Amino acid sequence: MLSTILLQAAAGMGVAKMGATIGAGFAAIGAGIGIGLIGKGAVEAIGRQPSAAGEIRTSMLIMGALVEGVALFAIVVCFLALFQ
């Protein structure tokens, strides 16, 4: 069923535009996985050493912001390719 939807979408727009939208989706999925792994690691680290919770939390927020920035950049590039 998904393949028929993708084929219908490809018939209505160019293959490059379809690739740009798929790339934006992959960027969003990758960012979600990355942020999840950062959170998992931070919770495990706080569980091992609760006294360092403040430093670990700060590092987690900084890394999460970096992943969000990279994902946003990737999505913007995909949409620029879509509208060019």
Structure commentary:
By secondary structure, this protein is an all-alpha fold. Helix 2 runs antiparallel to helix 3. The chain has a single domain, classed as F1F0 ATP synthase subunit C (F1FO ATP Synthase, Up-down Bundle). It contains 3 helices and no strands. Its main location: membrane. Keywords: ATP synthesis, Cell membrane, CF(0), Hydrogen ion transport, Hydrolase, Ion transport, Lipid-binding, Membrane, Transmembrane, Transmembrane helix, Transport. Key component of the F(0) channel; it plays a direct role in translocation across the membrane. A homomeric c-ring of between 10-14 subunits forms the central stalk rotor element with the F(1) delta and epsilon subunits.
Can you give me a brief rundown of this structure?
It is found in: Cell membrane; Membrane. By secondary structure, the chain is an all-alpha fold.
Q: What string gives the helices and strands in order? A: HHH
Specify the helix fraction band: over 70%
The tally of structural domains comes to: 1
CATH class: Mainly Alpha
Q: Largest sheet at a glance?
A: none
| SS content category | mainly alpha
Distance between the termini: 29 Å
Measured by DSSP, the beta-strand proportion falls in under 5%
Stretches where pLDDT falls below 50 for ≥5 residues?
Answer: none
Q: Would you tell me the overall average pLDDT?
A: 83
At the third CATH level, what is the topology name?
A: F1FO ATP Synthase
Gross morphology: elongated
CATH superfamily: F1F0 ATP synthase subunit C
**CATH-defined architecture:** Up-down Bundle
Number of helices: 3
Radius of gyration equals 18 Å
Number of E strands: 0
Main location: membrane
Domain V-ATPase proteolipid subunit C-like: 18-80
GO molecular function, one term: hydrolase activity
Subcellular location: Cell membrane; Membrane
